[in-house]
Specification:
single chain; alpha+beta
Length: about 700
C-alpha cells in the first residue's frame, strides 16, 4: 500500500501553491535588501557565474548565518513513527475524498508521496524547514526534486488554473521565482532542490535571502561553516537532525532591536502635531499636542528600554551557549536521540547544574501516577549569584527578593536557602485518572516535593519552627491547620483540598499530598521503580545525570480534550423574564408576579426534558474524557536526562509511545472529537416548551398587573 503524509503534503501544497500561484498584488512591495551577496539587478546575468560543485543536500545551500534548521532524511523516514496503512484503512473515505479534491484542483493526489515524482518532487530525499533570521522572522521550507523542470511545469499549470503566475526575477546558480521583485514570498529552484522563502518583516531583513540561496557557493554555506561542523561533528546520519543556534538567535534579536530603534517612525501624536502645525492651529492646541507627543516619546523610550533589558537578560543566560545539535531516530515505539550544546565552564547554565543528584525521588518514590516530574542538583551559590545578575538586569536584586519572602513567610529565607545542598525533585501526581475522567475535582491532583539539606539536625529545627508559624503566617490562605502525624512529621490541613504531609527522612525533607511518600523515600534504595512505560526507567534513573524531566502526555492531552465540568447551576426558564414585552414596567414588578399553575405544570415538562439532555451531555462528556485518557496512554510520555560533557551539556532520551503508538493516538483523538451522538430532537422539544412558558408568563403578567404586552 502506498504511504502518505498529510502533514508534509499540506505544507507543500499550501505553501508552494498558495504563496507562489496567487494573482499579482496591486501594489509593489519594496525589496527588503539592505546589502546582498548577490547583484541587486533583477535581470539575468550577462555572463554565467563561476561553476561550483552542486549541493548534496538542501542544507548545504543555507546561508552561514542560519539560526535554526530541522531536516528529515525523507518523508519515508518521518512515516516510521506511524502505521500509515492502518490509518488509511480506518479513514479511507476521508482519504479518498481529500485525494479526489486535490486531484481535481492540482491535477495530482498530493497526499500520496509515491506520486510526487510525477510533479518532480522526490519523496526519498531530504525535506525540512529553516529559520533564516529571527529578527525579521524570515524562514524557508525546502524539498528535494527528481526533476526541476517538471516541478516548474507543475507550478505553471497550477498558477494558470488559479489565475496567477510566477516569473523569474533573478537568475544566478539558481532561479528566484516570484510575481515581481521584492515581494515577501519567493520560490528558489537550485540544483535538485526547491526553497519557499517567507520574510515576516522586510524592513528588518539584513539581506535578500532568496537571492543568496540562488547564488551561494556550498563551500561557503552553513554546513561548511566551523560552527556547524563543531556542533554536528561526524555523527552517523539520523532520521531527523536539527541545528539550533540559541545564542546566535539572541544576538540576532539584539541586533534587530537596534536596527528597529534606528528606524523609529513618528508616533501618531507627532503626526497629529505636524498636521496641526501645517494647518496653523491655535497655540493652545499646539501646546496640548506637544505635551501628548512628549508623553508618547517617553512611553516609546520606556518600551524600548524594557525590551533592551529583556534581551540583555536572555543574552546573559544563553549568550555563551553554542549551537544545539539534535539527532533523532524514529520508530513506532519511540522517537529518541541526543541534543548537545557546547558552552564554556563560565556559562551560567553550566555553572548552576551539578552532576550526581541520583534518581529524582519525587518521581521514583511516587505511589500515584506522575503527570509531570523533574529533579536534579543545583549549585545554589552559583544559582543565587546568577539569579541576582538576572534580576539586576530588570532593575531588581536577590536582596529585595529575600525581603519580600521574609515579609510573606517570616523567618530567614536566605539562611534557609544556605541550609540546602541543592538536591531537589518535584512531581505533579494524580490519585485516580479514571476518577478524573468521571468528573473528579482538583482533589484528584497532588504533588511530591523532596529537598536535600546539608545538616539533618538544622533541617529538623527549621521544619519545627516553620510548622509552628504556618497557621498565623501571612500566606493569604485562611484555614490552614497543622497537627502531628500519626507516625512522624506533620500534617497540614488545606481547606477544600488534600492534606499535605511533611516529614524529614535523614537529610531529605519530603512534602507531599501522598501519605505514603515519606515511607517510599525511606525505602527507596531497596525499591525498584517500575514506571507505566518500561522504557522510561533507564532515562529517569540514568547515573550521573545533572537533571531529569518526565512529562506524561495525559497532563497535556487531558487538559486539551477533557471539558471542564460545569459546577454552577444550569439555566432555568424563570431566569429569562419577558422584560422586552413590557418596556414601560420596571423589572422588579415583573419578578414579583407569582408563577401560575399552568406555568408550573409546563415547567415540570421542561425540567423533565432538560434532565434528559443533561444526562446525555454528561454521558458524552465522560466518553470524551475516557477517549482523551486512552489517547494519552497511546501517546505515552517524554523523558529526558541532562548530563555534563567536557565541552558543554547533553540531553538523552525522547518521546516514548504507549500501546498502539502514534497511529492509535490519532484514531482516539479523532474518535473523541466525532463522538457526539446528540439527539437534537429533544433540544427542539425543550425549545418549544420554553416558548410556551414564555407565552404563559406573558399572560400571567398581563392578568396580574392589568397591562398588555408591548405597552
Amino acid at each position: 500500500m502506498r504511504s502518505y503524509s498529510t502533514l508534509w503534503s499540506a505544507v507543500l501544497a499550501t505553501g508552494l501553491v498558495a504563496a507562489g500561484c496567487r494573482p499579482k498584488p496591486e501594489t509593489t512591495t519594496a525589496s527588503p535588501t539592505a546589502t546582498t551577496t548577490a547583484p541587486a539587478a533583477t535581470s539575468r546575468r550577462t555572463s554565467p557565474p563561476p561553476a561550483v560543485a552542486p549541493a548534496q543536500a538542501p542544507i548545504d545551500l543555507l546561508p552561514e548565518r542560519t539560526g535554526v534548521v530541522v531536516s528529515a532524511a525523507s518523508v519515508r523516514h518521518l512515516l516510521r513513527v506511524v502505521d500509515v496503512g492502518a490509518l488509511i484503512g480506518t479513514y479511507r473515505p476521508y482519504y479518498e475524498q481529500a485525494g479526489a479534491y486535490l486531484e481535481q484542483t492540482f491535477g495530482h493526489n498530493l497526499l500520496d508521496p509515491a506520486r510526487w515524482p510525477e510533479i518532480g518532487i522526490d519523496p526519498e530525499r531530504p525535506i525540512g524547514v529553516a529559520l533564516l533570521d529571527a529578527g525579521s522572522a524570515s524562514s524557508c521550507y525546502f524539498i528535494s526534486l527528481t526533476d526541476p523542470s517538471r516541478f516548474r511545469a507543475f507550478l505553471d499549470r497550477v498558477g494558470a488554473k488559479l489565475g496567477g503566475s510566477l516569473e523569474s526575477v533573478y537568475e544566478d546558480r539558481g532561479i528566484v521565482l516570484a510575481h515581481e521583485s521584492g515581494v515577501r514570498n519567493q520560490l528558489v529552484l537550485r540544483d535538485d532542490f526547491a526553497f519557499l522563502v517567507l520574510v515576516g518583516n522586510p524592513k528588518l531583513a539584513p539581506y535578500d535571502f532568496a537571492r543568496e540561496l540562488a547564488s551561494v557557493d556550498p563551500a561557503r554555506g552553513l554546513t561548511a561553516s566551523p560552527r556547524w561542523q563543531q556542533a554536528m561533528g561526524r555523527g552517523a546520519g539520523r532520521d531527523v537532525v536539527a541545528f539550533i543556534d540559541v545564542g546566535g538567535m539572541v544576538r540576532g534579536e539584539i541586533d534587530a532591536a537596534r536596527r528597529f530603534a534606528d528606524q523609529v517612525a513618528p508616533s501618531w501624536a507627532e503626526q497629529e502635531l505636524q498636521r496641526l502645525r501645517e494647518q496653523g492651529a491655535a497655540a493652545e492646541e499646539i501646546a496640548r499636542w506637544e505635551q501628548v507627543a512628549a508623553e508618547e516619546r517617553a512611553s516609546q523610550k520606556q518600551r524600548r528600554e524594557s525590551r533592551r533589558r529583556e534581551l540583555e537578560l536572555w543574552g546573559a543566560v544563553f549568550g555563551q551557549v553554542g549551537p544545539i545539535a539534535l539527532e533523532l531516530s524514529l520508530a513506532p515505539e519511540a522517537i529518541t536521540g541526543t541534543a548537545r550544546a557546547q558552552m564554556p565552564e563560565t556559562a551560567l547554565l553550566r555553572r548552576v547544574v551539578t552532576a550526581g543528584a541520583g534518581p529524582p525521588v519525587a518521581i521514583t518514590a511516587a505511589s500515584e501516577r506522575v503527570l509531570f516530574g523533574t529533579g536534579g542538583k543545583l549549585d545554589l551559590s552559583e544559582g543565587s549569584a546568577g539569579l541576582d545578575s538576572l534580576l539586576r538586569a530588570v532593575g531588581k536584586s536577590m536582596d529585595e527578593l529575600f525581603v519580600e519572602l521574609q515579609a510573606k513567610l517570616g523567618g530567614d529565607p536566605r539562611g534557609a536557602l544556605e541550609m540546602l545542598d541543592g538536591t531537589v525533585s518535584f512531581a505533579l501526581t494524580a490519585k485516580d485518572m479514571d476518577a478524573m475522567a468521571r468528573g473528579g475535582g482538583k482533589e484528584e491532583l497532588g504533588f511530591n516535593l523532596a529537598l536535600g539539606f546539608k545538616d539533618p539536625v538544622m533541617a529538623a529545627a527549621l521544619v519545627g519552627v516553620t510548622m509552628a508559624k504556618i497557621p498565623s503566617s501571612p500566606l493569604g490562605l485562611a484555614g490552614l491547620k497543622v497537627k502531628r502525624g500519626k507516625s512522624r512529621g506533620h500534617v497540614v490541613t488545606v481547606p477544600a483540598w488534600r492534606d499535605v504531609h511533611v516529614a524529614l527522612i535523614g537529610s531529605t525533607l519530603t512534602i507531599s499530598t501522598d501519605p505514603k511518600f515519606a515511607q517510599q523515600v525511606e525505602h527507596g534504595p531497596a525499591r525498584v521503580w517500575e514506571p507505566r512505560l518500561a522504557a522510561l526507567a533507564p532515562v529517569v534513573t540514568a547515573p550521573g545525570a545533572a537533571a531529569t524531566l518526565l512529562l506524561d502526555h495525559t497532563l497535556l492531552l487531558g487538559m486539551f480534550m477533557v471539558r471542564r465540568h460545569y459546577e454552577g447551576g444550569r439555566y432555568k426558564p424563570s431566569q429569562n423574564q419577558p422584560y422586552w414585552r413590557f418596556p414601560s414596567l420596571a423589572h422588579e414588578a415583573l419578578d414579583k408576579v407569582p408563577q401560575s399553575a399552568a406555568y408550573k405544570a409546563r415547567l415540570k415538562e421542561w425540567q423533565r426534558l432538560d434532565a434528559k439532555i443533561e444526562r446525555a451531555e454528561k454521558a458524552q462528556e465522560r466518553r470524551r474524557s475516557e477517549l482523551a485518557l486512552a489517547a494519552a496512554d497511546s501517546l505515552g510520555a517524554m523523558a529526558i536526562s541532562l548530563h555534563e560533557t567536557p565541552d558543554g551539556l547533553m540531553t538523552e532520551g525522547g518521546q516514548y509511545f504507549g500501546p498502539g503508538g502514534l497511529a492509535r493516538t490519532i484514531e482516539r483523538v479523532v474518535e473523541g472529537f466525532s463522538t457526539v451522538g446528540t439527539d437534537y430532537s429533544v433540544h427542539e422539544e425543550r425549545g418549544r416548551v420554553e416558548q410556551e412558558l414564555q407565552e404563559i408568563r406573558v399572560r400571567d403578567i398581563e392578568r396580574a398587573l392589568g397591562v398588555r404586552a408591548g405597552e
